[in-house]
Amino acid sequence: MTNSINRSAGLSRRSVLRGATALGAAALILPAGMRAASAEPKKGGILRIGMGHGSTSDSLDPGSWDNAYSQVFATSRHNYLTEIDADGALQPEIAESWEASADAATWTFKIRQGVTFHSGKALDAEDVIASINYHRGEDSKSAAKPIVDGITDIKSEGSHTVVVTLDAGNADFPFIMSDYHIAMLPAKDGAIDPTTTDGCGPYVVDHFEAGVEAKMTRNPNYWKSDRAHFDGIELLPIVDGAARQNALISGQVDVIDRVDLNTVHLLKRAPNINVLSVTGSQHYVFPMDSRAAPFSDNNVRMAMKHAIDREELVEKILNGYGSVGNDHPISTANRFHAGDAIEQRTYDADKAKWYLKQAGMDSIDLELSVSDAAFGGAVDAGVLMSEKSAAAGINLKVTREPSDGYWSNVWMKKPFVASYWGGRPTEDWMFSTAYKSGVNWNESFWENARFDELLAAARSELDNDKRREMYVEMQGLVRDEGSTVIPMFASYVMAHTNAVATPEKVAPNWTMDGFRIAERWWFA
């Protein structure tokens, strides 16, 4: 395992309700020999970023952003009501402050004045309302719909105050407003244009071709004087891991994400290259479509979960840059992680055989669709899973799918696939996005009435001890009845040239400094 430095900040409900809080989170890991970050940011230069995602099917529609390329592109041109910083603390962005009612069911946001969109339009409360409303309603196809479904009313009080009413209390609501889908876009006649490139963020879009490149220029009117240090940004999708690392070594790009962990030791030896590893809540998963046989039988799902050697995956796929998962998505960085309350699952071929027998089978033939577009090493992970599950009578055929179009043609289309999640800062946010019955990104199509009941109850429960009990039970339900194998949590491993400088702390909530690389980093 890599050496790590973990720092966390406690979360106080009182501070959330008053408009500033902190989220427990793991912080920066600095590999041995990495230089300290520059103290004084400098302006200038074009930052070229090589991303391990990006597809010709990518869209400007904020409700559709489903990969790190789209998400980094989004935060480069947009702002949000709130922002999560490198310490996991919730910071004001377009909302300069907020207050909640005593039951946390009504939230009042004061909107920052003097912010303009790239088009010159001044941002006001109506833009905020339209930007949020785009993700609401029965007809919404947005991936953010489940986290804003609780909004029953949203209105303005003057030009720079927005009041949001929820169907029940939600102490985490300001965190949700930092979601990368809920970007602030200009409104016209009460609605946003989801195809616009206009934003109020650090960079202005000059050119965008899905699956090819995005080029941006610094916003000369950006309201954050201490951010957006580069003259411009070039964002390049380079899905192939070897090509991405070669692009960095040869000087074609300045930064890459998703370093190939099989060759990271070689990259560390390359001159003028720094490897940056950050621990957080990212996890690699294998969802099984629970709607149809054989995965409609939980015995089959449990057999698969016991037939996987998690330690081997962490050792051979992550090369130690991560930790074993326990078939639920809540990481040790989250407040209400179950910890020792739930026993760690391990490889047990005999127990897997037992579950198959409960399903009336001695053996089973399954097909796993994988691609390194899902995560680096996904194909090799599939092979290791196939080798170990054979001892349990599970004959796992591993099918390598094309990287381009994987998220549109394979994910949530085929019954057993590889996928990944960046995790979420709160348990409710993670569960509401991917595990609540019927939500757009419930990739295993799992439904559980008890889980949904607990999800709603925990969201409005203001007693943290009671909330913990509920979230621990929910983690157990996902682990033992859910339809997703979650074998490992992976560090974010990036690399950059010595010419690039970073803050002392790099955010662990998502890759590329919480997707904020464009405005937080600079050239030394």
Properties at a glance:
17 helices, 8-stranded mixed sheet, 4-stranded antiparallel sheet, alpha+beta, disordered N terminus, single chain, 524 residues
Descriptive overview:
The chain is α+β, with helices and mostly antiparallel strands and 524 residues long. It has 17 helices and 25 strands. An eight-stranded mixed sheet has the order 2-16-23-15-3-14-13-12, sandwiched between helices. It has a four-stranded antiparallel sheet with strand order 6-7-9-8, with helices on one face. Strands 18-22-17-21 form a four-stranded antiparallel sheet. The radius of gyration is 22 Å and the shape is globular. The model is unreliable at 1-18 and 20-37 (pLDDT under 50).
List the helices and strands and how they pair.
Elements: H1 13-18, E1 21-22, E2 28-29, E3 46-51, H2 68-77, E4 82-84, E5 89-92, E6 95-100, E7 106-111, H3 125-133, H4 145-148, E8 151-156, E9 161-166, H5 173-176, E10 187-188, E11 191-192, E12 203-209, E13 213-218, E14 232-237, H6 241-249, E15 255-256, H7 264-269, E16 273-278, E17 283-287, H8 298-306, H9 310-316, E18 322-324, H10 349-358, E19 364-370, H11 378-389, E20 394-400, H12 406-409, E21 419-421, H13 427-434, H14 449-460, H15 464-481, E22 484-490, E23 492-497, E24 500-501, H16 511-514, H17 517-520, E25 522-523
Parallel strand pairs: 3-14, 3-15, 19-20
Antiparallel strand pairs: 1-5, 2-16, 4-5, 6-7, 7-9, 8-9, 10-11, 12-13, 13-14, 15-23, 16-23, 17-21, 17-22, 18-22, 24-25
